[in-house]
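Field: sequence (string)
Field: structure_tokens (string)

Example rows 1 and 2, in order.
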Amino acid sequence: MAKLTKKQKEAQAKIDRNKLYSVDEASALVKEITNVKFDASIDLAVRLGVDPRKANQMVRGVVTLPHGTGKDVKVLALVTPDKEAEAKEAGADFVGLDEYLDKIKGGWTDVDVIITMPSVMGKLGPLGRILGPRGLMPNPKTGTVTMDVAKAVSDVKAGKIDFKVDKTGIVHAAIGKSSFSADKIAGNAKELLETLNKLKPAAAKGVYMKSVYMSSTMSPSIQLDPKAV
């Protein structure tokens, strides 16, 4: 096992392992224990009492974080010529169709989100093996396949993220940066947790939100009180 550095030991010492923290307490503490030299990402990991192998217990959704993600999200709008102007005005970083489909076929995936139209989805099918593993395949359920391209682009730029429970029953999501104030981190965390609560499947029995942890890049994790959530 690797030895802890002095800073890591100091961070660990600030966390009471016998305590379940409130969202507000954890949001303040995560800033205290983050000591990397870059603007670290703040993440939530939520273990849900669901069986993701069963279709009626899959938890997936989107949420617009009130204070944004703190990340400059690169958006590719794969649209027909009549939609190009509105996509550009809404802030899409890359706009076009066939030329970008060719680039993706060649292995280019230097974007965070792809937004497209229903009529274009047929062309994206063959690219599933490239886009799927990277989480880039547009999906109507996350609002990335739509005729309202401008709204979809502006929503993503404003802090809209999508999330999905993984095969172990955990939802991982980045909810901000360490440069955010504690209030903004807490606001984003509460928005995500409230959204997850609303998405509880009717088929899920027993405790739904089993555990919640907050951490930053390379920091130890802080356990939140799921009952308070």
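Row 2 begins here:
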Amino acid sequence: MALRYSVAIALGAVATFGLLMLMRAVIADPQPAQDTGIKGEVLDFVRLVQDREVIVKDRQIKPPPPPDEPPPNQPRPDINTDATVGAEITNVQVNVDFDAGGIADFSGDGEYLPIVKVAPIYPRRALTRNIEGYVLLEFVVTSTGAVRDPVVIEAKPPGFFERAAIQAALKFKYKPKVIDGEPVEVSGVRNRIVFEMSDE
């Protein structure tokens, strides 16, 4: 058994040595390298700067062309202002009443007075159902004459006119109340807004 291993190891070593020698023979160059030097021609480029004559062009700016003549006056079209295009107008009357009741006080250097009262927009839901009514509002007139914090005190019928009345009240303008030369806020100012449909 040991003899077989010894013979196999010896044969393997011989085969390995033979393969290494064969590879060395294949890689080796039979002819030694020779210094052949540089072959070919070397070109040297030299750029010569040539003198150039500067040519100055005299350019003149052309004047702009004269403006075109305006078109002659066109005749104005005739517009019939009496015509109504697809609009249905319903007679609606909205009354804005001023109520000085409540906590408002008129004593002092100057009374607060309404300057601008904007009529509210009649709600479409109430208009289509032919519903009339009123809203009683209470709010604060600020020192600048604007309306602040409108509150619905009473509405009849409820659920129809409150929103339109509040939006209109916020657009009201007042001459503020003056005490000792200074404008002051006035609370408890009431307004009754009546929504009525005209019989005409």
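free_text_note (row 2): The beta strands are 92-99, 113-116, 133-141, 147-156, 173-175, 177-179, 182-184, 186-197.
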